[in-house]
């Protein structure tokens, strides 16, 4: 059973890791999020030319004065790049590197980025295969703005929880009534300002858990905690954890029920999910060249 489909305390999710501490979508950034005690990490993945899933937000990599699509590189080509950032040089990790490094120690909110050239079915199969290989299917929520990708993901492996991301008002389906425009998902990931009591009520009716992004102000974090969201995605997981745990101390926090907001009267273990940063630098085994596409 997916962790994301079960009742749980409100989780704090590190957005692209902890990007105020290290370059976003890198192992260093995810290490920071884990060290703070984040309940889950969110990161972006894109497809390479040979079908690998790698962590990168933008459609293009900037090399000198050129913008080169991630989709034009093979996995081996992209992992050789050393790119500049305000935190120093960094490399682009593969999704396999993330699962190998953290395994069952973290939960994963994997945002799949697509473009016109993305092979949706191949991407869904690759994400599912890696989650299965590393035994983290219950730890994963695969989310996207792309409704068609989410349909392919559900067809590929129905055991992997999925979430629909949106940044504008949408109509949620009624319970048990699929609509042609809304993908079959377990969760919604709305922009934070869209999360109001009416949306929560609709989500309850549709059986969807709610995971707003990107929430970096303490007052807004507290507002969303009060509404009963299932998780809060933030660039500042340390702030989010402090705010959440303060609320727990002030009053016994209810459990977040996927698709049901918070179930009032349930108790919560107030202990954190603290983990250290002692990580091996070992790489996962090389899976060899994937089929050129």
Distance between the termini: 34 Å
Question: Residue-averaged pLDDT, rounded?
Answer: 89
The CATH topology is: TIM Barrel
Question: What is the helical fraction, as a range of percent?
Answer: 25-40%
| CATH architecture label name | Alpha-Beta Barrel
Extended strand count: 13
Low-confidence stretches: 261-277, 287-293
CATH H-tier superfamily? Phosphatidylinositol (PI) phosphodiesterase
Number of helices in the DSSP assignment: 8
Q: How many individual domains?
A: 1
Largest sheet, in brief, is: 9 strands, mixed
- Return the CATH class: Alpha Beta
Shape label:
globular
Radius of gyration in whole Å, from Cα? 18 Å
Assign the structural class, choosing from mainly alpha, mainly beta, alpha/beta, alpha+beta, or little secondary structure: alpha/beta
Beta content comes to: 15-25%
Give the ordered list of helices and strands. EHEEEEHHEHEHEEHEHEHEE
Explain the overall architecture.
With 293 residues, this protein is of the alpha/beta class. The protein has one domain: Alpha-Beta Barrel (TIM Barrel), CATH 3.20.20.190. It is 28% helix and 19% strand. The protein contains 8 helices and 13 strands. It has helices at 27-36, 75-79, 95-102, 120-133, 147-156, 197-206, 218-227, 237-250; strands at 11-15, 40-47, 53-55, 60-63, 66-69, 108-112, 140-144, 161-166, 187-190, 209-210, 231-234, 255-257, 261-263. The strands form 3 sheets. Strands 1, 2, 3, 6, 7, 8, 9, 10 and 11 form a 9-stranded mixed sheet that branches. A hairpin with a 2-residue loop joins β4 and β5. It is globular and about 50 Å long.
């Amino acid at each position: 059973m997916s962790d994301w489909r079960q009742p749980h305390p409100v989780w704090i999710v590190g957005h692209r890791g902890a990007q105020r501490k290290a370059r976003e979508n890198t192992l260093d950034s995810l290490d920071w999020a884990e060290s703070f005690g984040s309940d889950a990490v969110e990161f972006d993945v894109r497809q390479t030319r040979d079908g690998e899933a790698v962590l990168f937000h933008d459609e293009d990599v900037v090399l000198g004065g050129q913008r080169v699509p991630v989709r034009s590189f093979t996995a081996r080509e992209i992992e050789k790049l050393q790119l500049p950032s305000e935190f120093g040089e960094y490399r682009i990790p593969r999704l396999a590197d993330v699962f190998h490094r953290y395994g069952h120690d973290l939960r994963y909110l994997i945002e799949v980025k697509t473009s016109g050239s993305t092979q949706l079915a191949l991407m869904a199969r690759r994400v599912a295969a890696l989650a299965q290989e590393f035994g983290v299917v219950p730890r994963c929520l695969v989310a996207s703005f792309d409704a068609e990708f989410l349909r392919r993901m559900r067809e590929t492996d129905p055991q992997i929880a999925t979430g629909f991301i949106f940044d504008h008002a949408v109509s949620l389906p009624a319970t048990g009534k699929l609509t042609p425009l809304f993908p079959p998902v377990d969760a919604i990931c709305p922009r934070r300002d869209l999360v109001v009591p009416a949306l929560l009520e609709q989500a309850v009716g549709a059986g969807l858990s709610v995971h707003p992004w990107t929430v970096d102000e303490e007052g807004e974090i507290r507002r969303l905690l009060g509404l009963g969201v299932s998780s809060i995605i933030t660039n500042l997981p340390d702030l989010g954890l402090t705010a959440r745990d303060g609320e727990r101390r002030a009053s016994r926090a209810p459990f977040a029920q996927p698709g049901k907001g918070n179930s009032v009267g349930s108790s919560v273990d107030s202990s954190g999910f603290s983990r250290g940063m002692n990580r091996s630098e070992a790489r996962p085994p090389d899976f060899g060249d994937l089929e050129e596409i």
